[in-house]
C-alpha cells in the first residue's frame, strides 16, 4: 500500500472539538493524507464562545516540530491559530529549515478572529504575518474580514492582489460566510484566477469550515496538485463538510464533517467564473450531444470526405499563418468551411468563433488559452451568441480548467491529452484513462477524450470510460473510418457506470 502524504498542521486546540486541530484531522482523513497535529495554542472554548487563549511556550512548539522532522517530514505545512509573534517566528524558522531539503508547501490560514467574535491577533502579530510569514506562503486562505485586516478593505479580487503584493504565492479569499445564492471564493493563483462557486448550502452546523478548507488545500498540494486544482478539491470537501455537519450537545453551532466520498460526488464539482456570477450555469436543453468518433482535420476537403465516409462530427482546425493578410485569411477560412459542409453533419470550427459566426457555422471549439484571451466585451458577445443558439465545446487539462469550462455550460468538455501527443507542445502530463473516466462521471456535460489516439484499440478504451466521444487526428490517415466506428462500438459495450476514485494531478 502506498504511504499517504504527510501534512503538518500547526494550529490551536479547540477544547469543544469543533475547529482547529480537530477540524484539521477530519479534513485530512477525508483527503487521504496523514496529519501531524502540532499544538501552537490551547483554547478554552465551547460551541458558544471562546473563553480563553493560551499560546504554548515556544520550546514546546519547537520540541513537537523537531520530533516530527526526522521521522515524519511534511510535503505541506498548514498554519491556523498561532497565538503569538514568537510562535509565528518558530514556524518561519522551520519552514526555512525544511525547504533546505526540498520543496515544502505552506498554506496559511490566518485565524485572526473566532466565528464567535473573539479576537486572536493584535497589531504586532498582524505585522509579523505581513512581513515574515506571508512572504513564505504558497497560498493564504483568509475570509473577507481577515483579508481586510491583512490587506485592507475592498472587494475580494483586490484583496487577493494586495496579499500577493506582500509576497504570497497565491491567495484564496473565501466567502462562505457572505450572503447570496452562490458560495463564492476568489482565487488568485499562477494557474488561474476567478470566482470558485457552488450553490450555497445553508447549514446550521458550520463550525470549522475555514480550517477544513485550508487543510484540504494543503492536503491537495501534498498529493501533488497545483494550487488552483487543490482549491477545487478544497471547495468540494468543504461543501461536503457542511452537508455532514451535525449538532453537538452544546447550544451553539456544531462541527462540519467532510465525507471521504466527496471526490466522487458530481454535485460538488464547482464552477470557476471570470466575472462575478449571478446564477448557477444551466446548459440549454434539447441540444444533441456529440457522440462516437470525433474527427479533427486542417483541410475542408478532408472533413467532407470524413463526413461522406460516415463520421457525424468533424472539427476544422485552421491556423492563421504568420504574416497572412486579413483578406487572404478570411478568404481561405471561408473556402475551407464551404468545402467541409455536408447536410446533417456537425461541423465544428476551432478557435475562430467570430469568423465562424459570420460564416454561418453554429458550433465552435475554444481552448483554455482562447478563453483567457477573451475581453469582457468578447465574453458578453460570446454569451449572447450562445443564447442565440451557438454551440460550444471547451478544452480542459486540469481540475481548475474543468471548473472553468463548467461555468460556460458548454455542449461538451474535452479532457486531454489522454496519451502523449505530438500535435502541439503541452505543459500537462497525460491524463490517462483514469482521469478521463473521472471527468466523464463528474462533469455536468458530455465529455470528449482527446490526445494521442493513434490506434482503434485506444479509441475503444476511451469509449469504455463513459466518454461521449473520442477525438482522432493523425489516426484518420492510418485507418478507415469504419475501423474507428467499430472500435467505438466495442468499447462502449465495456463501459461500467460509476465514478472512479481520485483523479491524478496533470500539471
UniProtKB/TrEMBL annotation:
It comes from the Bacteria. This is hydroxymethylpyrimidine kinase. The lineage of its organism: Bacteria, Pseudomonadati, Pseudomonadota, Betaproteobacteria, Burkholderiales. InterPro entries: Aldolase_TIM, HMP/HMP-P_kinase_dom, PM/HMP-P_kinase-1, Ribokinase-like, ThiamineP_synth_sf, ThiamineP_synth_TenI. Residues 303-475 form the Thiamine phosphate synthase/TenI domain. Pfam families: Phos_pyr_kin (PF08543), TMP-TENI (PF02581). Pathway: Cofactor biosynthesis; thiamine diphosphate biosynthesis. The keyword Transferase applies. GO terms for molecular function: kinase activity. Its cofactor is Mg(2+). Keywords: Kinase, Multifunctional enzyme, Transferase. Its EC number is 2.7.1.49. Residues 14-257 form the Pyridoxamine kinase/Phosphomethylpyrimidine kinase domain. It comes from Pelomonas caseinilytica.
